[in-house]
Amino acid sequence: MKVLLLSEKEIAGLLTIEEAMEVVKNAFREKALGHAQMPSKVYLNFSNYNGDLRAMPAYLERLGVASVKIVNSHPENPKKFGMPTVSAVVLLLDPKNGALLSIMGGTNITAIRTAAAGGLAIKYLAKRKSKTAAFIGAGVQARAQLFALLSVFPNLEEIRVCDLLPVTAESFVLDVQKTCSKCRSIVVQNEAEAVHDADIVVTTTPSKKPVIFDSWISEGTHINCIGADAPLKQELDPAILKRSKIFVDDREQASHSGEINVPLSKGILSDKSIWAELGDVIVGKKSGRTSNDEITVFDSTGLAIQDAATVELVYNKAKSRKIGYHIEI
Ligand SMILES: NC(=O)c1ccc[n+]([C@@H]2O[C@H](COP(=O)([O-])OP(=O)(O)OC[C@H]3O[C@@H](n4cnc5c(N)ncnc54)[C@H](O)[C@@H]3O)[C@@H](O)[C@H]2O)c1
User: Which residue from 47, 43, 46, 75 is spatially nearest to 56, judged by alpha carbons?
Assistant: First the structure.
C-alpha cells in the first residue's frame, strides 16, 4: 500500500485561510444537513503531566472523505520541552476500501482549521461594523485566529493583545503590523484593558478558571472562545454566558468539553442555554446575530470534520504539486 507522507514543513503555507474557511464551511454545512459521521472526541487524561490526548475520527459522507486525527494539549510544553502546546498527526483514509491514503503532520492543520471555524463565527456573528478586537492569549492558535479575523475584517482599526508572557504579546503585535499596516496594534497590561469596548474578543488560553469577567464586556461584543477544549477548562465568567446568545460547534462535544462545560456541570446553564450550532446558522436553519446589542459567544471545541475537510484539500494540493514522499506500509 503506497501512502503519501507529508511533513509539517511541506504542509505549512500550502493553504490560505480563505481556502480553509471555504472547506470548513462546507464541512459545517454537511454536518448541519445530516451527512457527517463524527463521534465526539475520545480523551486520555495525562493528569500527572497537565495534558491530554484526543482521537478524532470523521467521515464526510457526500464528499467521500474519512480521517482520524490524534492530537494532544500540554500547556506546559513550550516552557518545559520547547515543544508546542498542541501537536497532531492525521491519517486520511479511502472510505471505499479503508485504504490509508496519507499520513500527515496535523499541527499546522489544527491551527488553520481552528482559525477557519473562528473566522466563520466572526463572519456570521460579529457586528458588521466591528472596528476593534482583543486577543487574550497570543500563542499558536491566536496567531492563526488573527489571520482569519483579518480576512473577514481587513479594515479593523485596533487590535489589543494580552498574554501572560510579554514577549509573546510583543511578537503577536509584530505579526499584526506585518499583516495589516493600517491597523493599530497594542500590547495591554491586563485582560480588562484588552476587552474594554472591544467589538470582537478572541480567547485562546488553556485556563481552568475565568480570565474575562462580566462587568468588562459591553453589549454587542462577539466572543470566540477557542481555548476551552477539554473538561474543566473555561475562560469566561459564566455570568457573561448567562446574558449571551451561545453558539457551539457541536452540542455534545461543547457540553462535555467546551466553554460551557463547567457552568453546565454546575447547573448555571442548561441545554436550553445553547442557541444553535454554527452549521445551523450557516445553512439558515437558525438565526445568528439579530441586533447590535446582543452578546454572541462561539464555543469552539474543534471538530473532526474540520480536520477531514482541511486534510483532503491539503492532500489534493500536495498531489497536484508533487509534494511529499511515498512510503510502503
Ligand atoms: N477549539 C479548538 O479547536 C482548539 C484547537 C487547538 C487548540 N485549542 C486549545 O487552545 C488553547 C491554546 O492553544 P495554543 O496552541 O495557542 O497554546 P499556546 O501555548 O501556543 O498559547 C497559549 C497562550 O496563552 C497564554 N496565556 C495563558 N493564560 C493566560 C491568561 N490568563 N491571560 C493571557 N494569556 C494567557 C500563554 O502565555 C500562551 O502564550 C489550548 O487550551 C488548546 O488545547 C483549541
Answer: 43
CATH class, range 117-302: alpha beta
Three-state DSSP state, 41: coil
pTM: 0.98
In the block, residue with C-alpha cell 462546507: 26
Contact 298, 202 (CB under 8 A): no
Is the distance from the beta carbon of residue 221 to the nearest atom of ligand 1 less than 6 Å? no
- In tens, the pLDDT along 9-33 reads 999 999 999 999 999 999 999 999 9
The torsion region of residue 137 among left (phi > 0), alpha (psi -120 to 50) and beta comes to left
Tell me the sheet residues that pair with 53.
Answer: 44, 72
164 within 8 A of 189, measured Cβ to Cβ: no
The whole-number pLDDT of residue 174 equals 95
Q: Which CATH class is domain 2-110+305-328?
A: alpha beta
pLDDT at 1 > cutoff 80: no
On whether the CB atoms of residues 203 and 236 are closer than 8 A, the answer is yes
77 CA closest ligand 1 atom index: 19
Residue ranges, CATH 3.30.1780.10, the chain: 2-110+305-328
Query: Ligand 1 in contact with 227 (CB < 6 A)?
Result: yes
Contacts of 174 (CB under 8 A, 6+ apart): none
Contact criterion met (CB below 8 Å) for 92 and 1: no
- pLDDT, tens digit, 9 for 90 and up, residues 251-307: 999 999 999 999 999 999 999 999 999 999 999 999 999 999 999 999 999 999 999
Q: Give residue 225 CA to ligand 1 midpoint distance, Å.
A: 10
Q: Look up 322 and say whether it is catalytic.
A: no
